[in-house]
Amino acid sequence: MAQNLLQARLQDPSATLGVNWAYSFTKRRPEIQTRYNQRITYQRAKQEDPKVIKQWFATVREAIQEHGIHEDDIWNFDETGFAMGLCSTSKVITAVDRSERPRRVIQGNREWVTIIECVSSKGISIPPWVILKAGSHQAAWYQEPAIKNGWVLARSQNGWTTDEIGLAWLKETFEPYSKRLSTGAKRLLILDGHSSHQTAEFDAFCKENAIICLCMPPHTSHLLQPLDVGVFGPLKRSYGKLVEGMMTAGNNHIDKEDFLHLYPPAREMVFNLENIRNGFAGAGLKPLNEDRVLEKITFQLRTPTPPLVEGSISSTFQTPENPRQLYHEVRSLQRSLRKRMLSSSPISHIQHLEKAAQMAMNMNVLLQQEIKVLRDENERKLKKKARRREPGPSQIDLYNILNAIITEKGLTITYMDSTTPQNAFLNALQYPINPSKTSEAQTWASTLNAHAYGSAKPNKTLKILINPFCSGAMEKFHKIASPILSAANCTLSVEETQYRGHASEIAQSLDLIYDGIVCCSGDGLPHEVFNGLARRKDAQDALGSVAVSMIPCGSGNAMAWNLFGSDDVAVAALAIVKGVNMPLDLMSVTQGDRHTVSFLSQSLGVLADSDLKTEHLRWMGDQRFIYGVFATIVRKTAYPCLLAVKTLPEQGEEISSGHWQVHGGLSLPLKYGTVEDRVREDWEVMPREQLASFYTGKMKIVAKDTNFFRMLSRMMGFWI
Question: Cα separation of 63 and 214, whole Å?
Fold first, then answer.
């Protein structure tokens, strides 16, 4: 700034200040000193009024007394925004008699990622919500191990909070956590005046759940909000240091995944008992003390007049600060000259006019410099945007393209962006189109879609069955799978199963208008669906026309590993979109008069018990199977069994040549009869009456890390 003024005064663009100019300048002017500045918006500065602050504390006291709020049951929540780069404080020049840190009036900051945080006067915090700017959830967000249990990743079109997100946070996070941690019957929630906190639904839920809300006066959160007073400042400095460290390591682009990696450790360093309690104390809420806030109010929007030094002229002569003062100063000069006064008044008036003119000229120089900086920055952004190369259609695997469509905005190509073979997320490209070329563009988009889908049917109609008792199934479908299927223009009919066997009932009565039935579950739901289709009177048509697939949400997910080579939800959803119908042999099992079919495996003994007898241990994940096997072995359990096996050295044609026949009550082919039939002569009866375990399979992989039947292409697998 000073250098710009020097160049304007000397009319020399190359003129520069000396390295010690700032130090010498402050030494020459005893009325000024150097201090670190602090940013503050104009609206906040206006609200630093003792009357406003005192009225706020009167309202707080009244609410505490009326509702019997315990001092540990005062909560504060707010959103804070993070940009990809954070500004640090800098040294500025200010008056010597100023004790507090000076603050600079700004217009506000642009937010990229929004965090909802909440703390209590007891010194504790609850899990945050992270709101990212995105059209859909991306699987990569959930791969970050630093994201802890209870954290919620939400999305919005601009990365800011919405009425729906605010209400969801209140219901899903604040109510259960704060209720469990509260001392008294009611909780006091301190919040700002954001529109998402003032909806009728938000207010009604608070009243129903003994939550007393108090909204701070506008633009006072820097004084009255504990999060702003004691936490958010250190939090952003902590995050900024981690960003600096990442950039030092060579990462010059901080994206959403980087943010999700950096924010948890930054938060952990700041959200501690001491900082949170200091925030409530500094905001005057615990202990309740308005003087803690009032003593901070020293900010003035205008620059104070420098103190008079001995020998100076009367304070009557002041430099004009606006056109009205300048007008009066000129009028006074005119009157003095007319009277031809011999006093120093005319000279003083002229000096002040000269100073006012200098100030105006200096301001003009500074404004011109600011305009130049803004124009240069805008031009830089335009050039950056122009040279930014988005991945074009030729760089995307055709398999990953979901849809190409012409809209008013131009050509939109929706595709899966694969970062690794086991991980993918939804993305889109947009290209403007000359209106005169719309017809050609439509033809091009149709051709691209045809090549992208090949022999697969586009725009599938799918019946979605979700097992709500399967951990994470609802969230995985709605946040990951559903956006992918919808982007591929699939028509979805979604239904939740209510009890064991419900999926079988649905499949048995299902209208055959669907291209496929997709089970959001483990392998149990597809098993029910196959048996439901097999019990239909038109079983042959049903099994031949309606495909069965799955979104992996269970422990083993064997069907997904065999079909997709992965248990990643996004990979599975893409495979369903691009998949073609594939015939699959089913095994028939007869027990008494009950017939069932199996698509995966059939077991007797140890392996069966390791699954069925550990249902109550699903919380252990895959480890429950290992526990079940060892527990059964330790008990030395044996199982009665008469086993006959036919081994086919070259059995490919024989198995695939089976045809459907109706046998008893089962509308499926029973090529070798049932257990009631006599064992055929070409079958070998095993010389054992008891076995520890028998296991036969129709698919190679029975779990992620269990490939029992590696040679299944040459033989039906069985394991004894």
Answer: 8
Task: Please enumerate in sequence order all residues whose Cβ is within 8 A of that of 568, keeping only pairs 6 or more positions apart, or say none.
Answer: 139, 422, 423, 424, 552
Judged on CB neighbours under 10 Å (0-12, 13-18, 19+), 707 is middle
225 near 121, Cβ under 8 Å?
no
CA angle 468, 473, 476 (to 5 degrees): 145
Dihedral over alpha carbons 628, 629, 633, 635 (to 10 degrees): 10
Share of the chain above pLDDT 90, in %: 29
Query: 3-class SS at 601?
Result: strand
By C-alpha distance, which of 444, 442, 438, 456 is closest to 402?
A: 456
3-state secondary structure of 137: coil
pLDDT of amino acid 461? 94
Residue range 382-400: mean pLDDT, rounded: 63
Q: Tell me the pairing of strands 717-719 and 74-82.
A: unpaired
Query: Where residue 606 falls among pLDDT bands split at 50, 70, 90?
Result: confident
Put simply, whether the predicted model's pTM sits higher than 0.70 gets the answer no
Cis status of the peptide bond prior to 287, with omega within 30 of 0? yes
Domain chopping of the chain, boundaries: 50-83+106-294, 393-453
Q: Lay out the sheet containing 601-605: strands in order across.
A: 601-605, 693-697, 717-719
Choice between 684 and 153, residue whose per-residue pLDDT is larger:
153
Using the Cα atoms of residue 306, residue 47, residue 112 and residue 232 in order, give the sign of their dihedral.
Answer: positive
* One CATH from 3.40.640.10, 2.40.160.210, 3.30.420.10, 3.20.20.390 for 50-83+106-294: 3.30.420.10
- Which is higher by pLDDT, 458 or 645? 458
